[in-house]
Amino acid sequence: MVKALGHSTRLGVLLLAAVTAIALAATEPAAPAGTSTAQPALRILDTMPLTLRGLRFRPLEKVKVTATTRSGVTVVTVRATRQGTFAARFPRVVVTRCLDELAVKAVGARGSRAGVTLSQPQCDPGGSATPATR
To answer: How many structural domains compose the chain?
Structure first.
């Protein structure tokens, strides 16, 4: 047999449900429909030549991608697709196993930002890899 809840008990359950819903809504920021709250990211696809994939940038955003190595700084500009992805290729940047460090940053014209670094072992003049001492 099911016992009917009294008026004050039902009111208490409704009040608890409303407070819980408000608390949950306050802890999660709302995202506009069709957008993701995930941050933009960069992935290294290849190192000879350096090729990267950008993910979760704003649709059709113009993106300046800067690669910094021991030998210098190289910049390419790309445009994200409608899905917010892009490929950036640096034909003159080749990442070897003896490279000290590679740092790449991507900055979109509409505020998207991402970066990636790659640390490699340093090589001694004889060509064998030695651990970095920094």
So the answer is: 1
Inside any domain, residue 67: yes
**Please, which residues have CB within 8 angstroms of residue 63's CB and are 6 or more apart in sequence?**
54, 57, 77, 78, 79, 80, 86, 88, 106, 107, 108, 109, 112
What is the residue range of 122's domain?
A: 41-130
Q: 25-49, pLDDT tens digit by residue?
A: 443 444 455 555 689 999 999 988 9
Q: What is the pLDDT of residue 121?
A: 64
Q: pTM here? A: 0.64
Q: Which of 50, 116, 54 is nearest to 85 (CA)?
A: 54
Does residue 45 lie within any of the structural domains? yes
